[in-house]
Amino acid sequence: MIKLQAIRRSACPISCTLELIGDKWSLLIIRDMMILGKHTYNQFLNAEEKISTNILNDRLIMLVKKELIYFTGTDKRKKYYLTEVGKDLRLVLESIGIFGIKHFKGSKKYTEKNLKKSTM
Predict the structure, then answer these.
(1) What are 21-67's pLDDT values in tens digits?
(2) How far apart, in Å, do the first and last CA atoms of the chain sit?
């Protein structure tokens, strides 16, 4: 079980999960790791969404504290990976992706292009 029991506002599983994830930047970092195979600070920084350095650093620290990701290596050469709990967010990301493809023009083309890149 996740250690965030003390700070959750309700027992609603959707609310608990949203409190764990935090915000869109956290989910996009998890997406980059899970789907696009990114593992380094610079790879996350160079994502199309253009996350700022201070937000990226804050989110990586928060995701490690919440045990969704972990890192190996030294401060200058960290590589980030999903924990088993982080990997369990796959269905969440897939569901959001399906919703986006259905409701946002250009999302399907973007997804196909980026999935091809990640499998090369």
Answers:
(1) 989 999 999 999 999 999 999 999 999 999 999 999 999 999 999 99
(2) 36
